[in-house]
Specification:
It is built from nine helices and no strands. α3 crosses α5 and α4 packs parallel to α7. It folds into two domains: about 50 residues, Orthogonal Bundle (Arc Repressor Mutant, subunit A), CATH 1.10.10; about 140 residues, Tetracycline Repressor, domain 2 (Orthogonal Bundle). The protein is mainly α.
Length: about 190
């Protein structure tokens, strides 16, 4: 792929976009500040105005991924909260679809590659925002009788563990083919969380 030349605009956003492209194409092995700057045609030192090191770049890419996922989940909730009796399964499906559409960024977001999360305030902010949204969805579903009474945090851990585990098994092709042939993926996921 020919490298894109960066001319004007927001260098930080261009670096993040290039990082996302490299991550999708080559995985974590290909992701470096040098490769990102080369991709957009700026000097390696130009990246240091925005990212002190690879960890800062990973934080920015993870933050961008979490922002995308948060918006998808929020949009799904807004669309389904007054018309569906299966809000949680719709949220779970949106989560799975995001991961299947963006496997490299999804794996980075939950990989532990970002070593000092607390050193990156934007990352912490979107993470907390997403947790708050998930808790809001659970409380709403409880109020509609779609989820049992109980501590929201306890239900959140259970549901996220189920959906996230299912998602990772799909991303890594770990389900036996016989499991996937017998039913539609969406119905399979719905059955797990109901």
């Amino acid at each position: 792929m020919a490298s894109k030349t960066y001319h004007h605009g927001n260098l930080k956003e261009a670096l993040i976009s290039a990082g996302l492209e490299i991550l999708s194409e080559q995985g974590m092995e290909g992701l470096s500040l040098r490769n990102v700057t080369k991709r957009i045609g700026v000097s390696h030192t130009a990246s240091y105005n925005h990212f002190s090191d690879k960890q800062a770049l990973l934080a920015a890419i993870s933050t961008a991924g979490h922002e995308q996922l948060h918006q998808i989940l929020l949009d799904t909730f807004e669309k389904t909260k007054h018309s569906s009796s299966h809000i949680i399964s719709e949220i779970a499906w949106a989560y799975l679809q995001f991961a299947l559409d963006n496997p490299a960024i999804f794996k980075l977001m939950f990989s532990g590659a970002l070593e000092e999360e607390r050193d990156h305030p934007e990352y912490v902010e979107i993470s907390q925002k997403s947790i708050a949204l998930f808790e809001e969805i659970i409380a709403f579903c409880q109020s509609k009788g779609q989820l049992p009474e109980g501590r929201v945090e306890k239900i959140a851990v259970k549901l996220w563990s189920l959906v996230h585990g299912f998602t990772y098994l799909m991303l890594e092709n770990q389900f036996p083919i016989e499991y996937l042939q017998s039913q539609e993926l969406r119905e399979m996921l719905k059955g797990i969380i109901s």
